[in-house]
Amino acid sequence: MNNHDFYQQLPALKTDVEPSIIIREERFDEIQIEEMPITDILSYVILVSLGLASTIVLLDLLKLGRQRLEKIATPVKYFSPVPCRKCRFFSSNSYLRCAVNPSIVLRNEAKDCSDYWSIFANN
Length: 123
Hints:
By secondary structure, this protein is mainly alpha-helical. 34% of the residues lie in helices and 0% in strands. It contains 2 helices and no strands. The longest helix is centred in the middle third of the chain and has 35 residues, at 38-72. The chain has helices at residues 3-9, 38-72. The radius of gyration is 44 Å and the shape is elongated.
């Protein structure tokens, strides 16, 4: 089927018909409002309040967990005023940190330790 045959099968256009515009009229004063039953309203209120309450509880638990983590993972003071970590007698052993003065190791009394011997000092 070529284009010429296609156009011949189309019905002839009527030129005597005037174009018209159809306007649809609606009356807005007769709008009906459906009322919701009180049980539906209460169910929406309950769902929204449970959602808000669970969000508040979840945020509070996250805050509590972060506070506990901050207590456990306290930052280490690298620049301690106590010179024990730079002493030759200091050890990383948790049972005996200092072989000479174990009673004052890593305390403020260790600032005036008479047995302090720096690991950086020449022999």
